[in-house]
């Protein structure tokens, strides 16, 4: 599906910066000087989504979803029905991921938007060499994820992500609300303090679509060629780009 259009006045960068700062203060999302987070409130995620719904009426709002699970789209749709859910259609996804996306389309009140790269896999192979992901994974991620998402986010005021602090060392200090300097919009991470167990328990308790790979050792699911099962005790994202020093695709850096 295509992105939904909403007739809302455009907000300037300074206004978005001020709103993001106000949201961080209101939700108590800032880390203390000791680098520790406040105690987790049971409804932190609900408060964060409600803050967006109240402060961005009729605005363009997006949810980024890798289709590992559908918890974030479900939570946002409860307060923002019909919200755009952006799925990066890289051409390299597991069949289980595509199946989860189809389930989300049917079960949730959302508008799933396939975000496409400029080149098909075949065109990329022809132009940059076959299986670029194995030679230069950073370039592959840039062309198939980072650049398409940047283009897709143009015109949105807010984007929700499922970033969690327990996923990897690079995400330990992720805020709940911040101004995204790359995309110049407000970035909200409602589930930043959740654990993987809390996420799966919530999904199971509420009958939400869940990628079956999560129960098969794939604790962080990306493109099939660059994702492996995670060994016991490893960070959830240890299975991404295994054997390289790459741990992020570039979207959240």
From TrEMBL:
Pfam families associated with the record: PAPS_reduct (PF01507)
Query: Which reactions are catalysed by this chain?
Result: [thioredoxin]-disulfide + sulfite + AMP + 2 H(+) = adenosine 5'-phosphosulfate + [thioredoxin]-dithiol
Q: Which residues form the active site?
A: 249 (nucleophile)
| BP GO annotations | hydrogen sulfide biosynthetic process; sulfate assimilation, phosphoadenylyl sulfate reduction by phosphoadenylyl-sulfate reductase (thioredoxin)
Q: Where in the cell is it found?
A: Cytoplasm
The metabolic or biological pathway listed in the UniProt record of this protein is: Sulfur metabolism; hydrogen sulfide biosynthesis; sulfite from sulfate
Q: Name one GO molecular function term.
A: 4 iron, 4 sulfur cluster binding
Q: What does this protein do?
A: Catalyzes the formation of sulfite from adenosine 5'-phosphosulfate (APS) using thioredoxin as an electron donor.
Report the cofactor remark.
Binds 1 [4Fe-4S] cluster per subunit.
Q: Give the family per the record.
A: Belongs to the PAPS reductase family. CysH subfamily.
Q: What class of enzyme is it?
A: oxidoreductase
* UniProt-listed Enzyme Commission number(s): 1.8.4.10
Its gene name is cysH
What is the protein name stated in its UniProt record? Adenosine 5'-phosphosulfate reductase
The UniProt entry's GO CC annotations, sorted and at most eight, read: cytoplasm
